[in-house]
Structures are given as C-alpha cells and as structure tokens.
Amino acid sequence: MGRDGRHRGTYVARITPRQMEVLRARFRLGSRKEAAAALGISDMTARGHISRLCERLGVSNAEEACYRLWLRDLWGEG
Fold first, then answer.
1. Which of 18, 23, 25, 74 falls between 20 and 30 A from 44, CA-CA?
2. What angle do CA 67, 28, 22 make, to 5 degrees?
C-alpha cells in the first residue's frame, strides 16, 4: 500500500516500464531531448511516452507525474 493507504496497483497497471524509464531519464539528465538521446530514441518518441504517462496519471506535466509517483512510493529507481 502507498502512504495514503490506497493500493498502488492501479498506477502500476497503467504505466509501462519504458514510460518510467523515459521519465526518470528526463529528470536525471535535465531535459527530454537529452533523455531521448541517451535512450537512443527520438525526442518525439520520448514526448509521446511522457504524454501518455501523464494522461494515465491525470496530470498535466512531467513534474506533476513525478510528484504523483513519488507520493505513491512508485518513483524508486528500479
């Protein structure tokens, strides 16, 4: 269970490992373009992964997605 007592599974089921990888790289490297280059994908592909992740979490940007995942104990590097 997460910090708020809710089951984490609803988030886990909707987020792909690749989406998490792109989002983590985005924050580790400082920009979406740098993350895309490091992962060997186009900037548009990285943008799509982050956009879909944000949609699934019901947030409007990558920073909110990161915060929401952190609150649910799902941000951990893994």
1. 74
2. 75
